[in-house]
Amino acid sequence: MASEIMTLNMGPQHPSTHGVLRLVVELDGEVIQKITPHIGYLHRGIEKLAEHRTYHQTLPLTDRMDYLAPMHNNLGYVLAVEKLLGLDVPERAKLVRIIMAELTRLKSHLVWIACHALDIGAMTVFLYAFRERELVMDLYEMVSGARMTSNYFRVGGLSRDLPAGFEQKVQEIVDTFPGHFDTYEGLLTKNTIWLQRTIGNGVISAEDAIDFGISGPALRGSGVDFDLRRDLPYSGYEDFDFKVPVGENCDTFDRYKVRLVEMREAVKIIDQALKKLKPGPILADAPQVCYPPKESVYNSIEGLIHHFKIASEGFPVPEGEVYMAVENPKGELGYYIVSDGGNMPYRMRVRPPSFVNLGAIEKMAKGSMLADLVAVIGTLDIVLGEIDR
Amino acid sequence: MAENNRAVVKLKERFADALLEYKEHRGEVTVTVKKESILEVLKYLRDDLRYNFLSDVTAVDYLGQEPRFMVVYHLLSIPNKDRVRVKAPVTEADCSIDSAAVLWNSANWLEREAYDLFGINFKNHPNLVRILMTDDWVGHPLRKDYPLQGPDREPYKGRLS
User: Which pTM value belongs to this model?
Assistant: First the structure.
């Protein structure tokens, strides 16, 4: 019997493709022969917009890219600008950044495990993980006033100090979340359907993962022991004790295990940071860059003028270029900023981990059954807002 | 100092003719090479100096300067935990450079994006088509002379325009 290749449009409306990813899949029966991803449905020209805004005004653009890990996007950007300026931030600001970044890792990985499990057909985990995510979202709201578009970090430190009661709430998360992770593992790690859908699925070797530029948990799932927080540390991560999990079989199950261990390690990092947290300034002593305290803006004309000047004109950044990468929950999130000495970035490039990781989807799924493609999309943990920018 | 950097020392020995500039800024080393030698330099950095991970390929438009474009490669050495930035100037008249997709598969999509948004042609690229904009899009949005508010619109002049 003659075989015929069938072309199938998967997405953008398919639930596993997040509404803005279209995969044109060529199938021989149910076996994938070729995948052509179509992206760009969510392209907002963020890199172009950044060239026309001051450094402070550019910050809110960043947390709108990876809306599951907004503070990581803020962090990469402010670290890049601080590097250009040669500015050091106070210890308290660094620790709060680490706490918020690791809470963000939890938040992002919780959405990943929820949606990945749901894509494969496990609904209970979805409900539990979203329940826990709400607790982290409440903390986001406490510190920044927003549940997703945080805009909390500032060049030089933070927009405001932690509110009263914040540390106790974080401590509750540190105490209770390991038990929740046990629950997810209890539901999935020995579940026959989960094992059959993930073991041996979406295999990509360490050499191929490096060749395709895959980063983050997906790279570590392929057995490459590399984590920017440990190997090229930033923001004080060198002072923390945490494990970097790696996989052995380079498949979807390994990536699942890596992310679960990463969540447990994130809790340990938060715990250590809480213990180190001491009262102190949250902004660098750099009045030409940092906004003045709100009391000064409301109660003195000098403070008001200072605030107005920075808000309207921004601040000049010395000529030069830097690349600053952070370990985002999805992988290496890099900001390449070129300054011409003015108050706006001459060029701001975002190195998006999801974009590069998605480039390997054909390599990972070719030869698999169509149903396995859903698991591969889930295991890459892509966010289209970041891919399209 | 950039002179003492491992990559710079080796590149100076081996690619003296191709090396246009090297410098260090904020602890980051940047090497600028002639575009004709870009593949040889990248291959040497990957194979001999163990910069095995191509993090990023992008471009910068220096409108009004000659050469107008700079193609920028960010390399990472996973074994040595070290980075280097390689740049190659590209003129507006001959807006092309060899594709690094023969060395790393990661260059495939990154170069497609640079082509899409800057209009730089990557020679011998396996599939040089637009990736973020639609196939029939006219112009390259990240060029400095491309209007912020879209085609056929006046350039953005700030919030009061």
Answer: 0.91
**Dist. CA B133–CA A2, nearest whole Å:** 38
Q: Look at residue B114 in the predicted model and tell me its pLDDT.
A: 94
Closest to A320 (Cβ–Cβ): which among B26, B60, B141?
Answer: B26
In the DSSP assignment, the letter for residue A366 is: T
Helix (H) or strand (E) holding B122: strand B121-123
Q: What is the pLDDT of residues A278-315, one digit of tens each?
A: 998 998 988 889 988 888 899 999 999 999 988 888 89
A104: Cα within 13 Å, side-chain hemisphere: 29
Main-chain phi, psi angles of A287, to 5 degrees = -60, -20
B110 in contact with chain A, both atoms CB, cutoff 8 A: yes
Interface contact A318, partner B, CB < 8 A: no
Which chain A residues are Cβ-neighbours of B54 within 8 angstroms? 213
Contacts of A351 in chain B (CB under 8 A): 55-56, 58, 74
Q: What is the ipTM of this complex?
A: 0.91
CB-CB under 8 Å, A356 with B132: no
Give me the residue label for tokens 């059954």: A369
Q: What is the token pair recorded at B47? A: 């194979």
Q: Low-confidence residues of chain B, pLDDT below 50?
A: 161
The answer to whether the beta carbons of residues A97 and A235 sit under 8 Å apart is yes
